[in-house]
Amino acid sequence: MGIDHPQWEMYSSSKHGVRYMLKQSGVLPESAAAPTCQSCHMTGGNHGVRTAWGFVAVRLPMPPDPKWAADRTTIVKGLGALDPSGKPTARLGVLKDLDVFRTTQEDWQKERDRMFANCRQCHSSNFARGELEKGDMMIREADRLLAEAIEIVAGLYRDKIIAKSSYYAYPYPDLLAFHDAPTSIEQKLYLMFLEHRMRTFQGTFHANPDYALWYGWSKMVSDITEIRKLAADLRKGKKAAKR
Ligand code: HEC
Ligand code: HEC
Q: What average pLDDT does the segment 50-79 reach?
């Protein structure tokens, strides 16, 4: 539940969840295959509940694709883990301690392999690998749009179009300021990150195209359109005020 993680909703309207509910209501036999949250996230009774991409879908090291690496760097700065010049911050230490994201390739791969083995109980290797890779690619595409939006807002601080009410010393958007962000454009940015990007990639990983496309990707596209327009209007307004 919650805007940032409607996994139950995604799951229960996916083929996996629908099949599970049909089993519960006796329409499908007990022997029918239908994974539950536990099959994929608590395999063998393991309560670790850890995934490759973690909750916010970033990881270190940066990917070889230079465009994606640049976008992810922008997002990690927006999470306050790197400062605007790219130096690690105190918050990075906190996020690492909380194990919010994987910080080595090996750590990421271990979780991915574990998830892949889950899918493999019921699906072919090719299908399972292909579906998980679709999730990765959705993150890459979503990062493109989110990074552009972060840079637009960062540009407004830099050019003193809007004031930065600061949690940290430097003028850069803080995605974790959530609803405390003071302007509409900053609030749009927080929803783009916490609501729509989450749905885009988590909907894909939970085999729910409806969430991935309509509640996720499609919303991100309208977010970026509005953010571009709001920024242009704010800049125009500032110019007019000066005259
Ligand atoms: C068919 C397997 C499958 C089922 C069933 C499933 N998930 Fe997931 N879940 C995934 C995959 C795959 C990911 C993304 C993994 C990655 O990061 O590579 C994911 C990601 C997540 C995340 C975000 C990552 C994190 O660590 O916070 C949460 C939260 C989550 N699932 C919760 C649930 C809940 C709750 C249910 C049941 C309502 C559920 N999942 C059912 C496969 C599943
Ligand atoms: C317990 C068995 C089981 C597990 C584990 C499982 N699935 Fe499935 N999955 C199914 C069944 C059964 C279907 C429905 C197949 C159908 O209707 O043709 C399905 C359907 C799907 C679909 C929808 C395909 C479509 O045609 O719409 C996707 C995508 C999918 N699974 C991905 C995954 C991924 C990725 C994992 C691992 C993270 C996974 N599944 C784990 C049993 C499982």
A: 95
